[in-house]
Amino acid sequence: MKNIGFLSFGHWNPSPQSGTRSASDALLQSIELAVAAEELGADGAYFRVHHFARQLGSPFPLLAACGARTSRIELGTAVIDMRYENPLYMAEDAGAADLIAGGRLQLGISRGSPEQVIDGYRYFGYAPPEGQDDAAMARQKTETFLEVLRGEGFAEPNPRPMFPNPLGRLRVEPHSEGLRERIWWGSATNATAEWAAKLGMNLQSSTLKFDETGEPFHVQQAKQIRAYRDAWTAAGHAREPRVSVSRSIFALVDDRDRMYFGRNGESQDQIGMIDENTRAIFGRSFAAEPDRLIDELKGDEAIAEADTLLLTVPNQLGVDYNAHVIEAILTHVAPGLGWR
């Protein structure tokens, strides 16, 4: 059995060929797709966060709206770039959205990926302290965020407040109990996966990873997951961790599927440079008739290691078609792999 959800980047473009021609379209259709996915029996609705782009940005209004329209499905991010965040204000937003959703948030956070602008976090008012780079800044903010989510008081109360205070130091409000254990770290390396395990975060491993061994993507990703679990065990955490991977998977069951994705059947891993010093490997896409798709997915070591699979969806093709993509996997592929 696996948790199966979708991951949307929330692209929008004013082109006549786009089903999401405005930010409003992208946001409102994201909510409708979460509702549709829940009705189909999917387990999660996840959203990517990008700044300075025609994509989904600030996630918490969207997550809260999805939470108000659904009752069961997990609602998450994959991922929020911590370089852009104020950890305390983020804890307030996250607590409020999680309470609206009834404790269903699953927040993926990370250092982030290459952005649309150079050092975009500086425009948001953040810069690494002297002696740190942006990755260290993101990890430091993450540790602050995790500490605040514990819900313990740390702020000295005003002796003459406008409204009465509880006794002792004050915490960020609203506090949502249990959210601390539903934070995931989006990791591109084995080392950061192990770091996330030590801090008690779940692991999100996406379709991009630093190429650390030259092996196929799914093999490197599976090794990363095993290293993460070993570090989790060594840290002595009481609960079981969760691990997700994301994949572009399309079951070709009708003429629309074949028109959109029928030429992607020979997709392979791709190698690219994130920056001048960092070689990355990108996971392949899968598009085939259901029987063939089942056979291909059986060989993916990382999917086998993970408990959660996020299906990246082409959101600009509209809610109805994306619901069809999700339903096709749940109906025609997941049972053949023992996921349902």
Automatic annotation (TrEMBL):
Q: Which Pfam families match?
A: Bac_luciferase
- What GO CC annotations are associated with the protein? cytosol
Q: Which GO terms describe its molecular function?
A: monooxygenase activity; oxidoreductase activity, acting on paired donors, with incorporation or reduction of molecular oxygen
Sorted alphabetically, which InterPro entries does this protein's record hold?
A: Bact_Lucif_Oxidored, Luciferase-like_dom, Luciferase-like_sf
Which keywords does UniProt give here? Monooxygenase, Oxidoreductase
Q: In the UniProt record, does the keyword Flavoprotein occur?
A: no
Please indicate which superkingdom the organism of origin belongs to: Bacteria
Please report the stretch or stretches of sequence annotated as the Luciferase-like domain: 9-256
UniProt name for this protein: Flavin-dependent oxidoreductase, luciferase family (Includes alkanesulfonate monooxygenase SsuD and methylene tetrahydromethanopterin reductase)
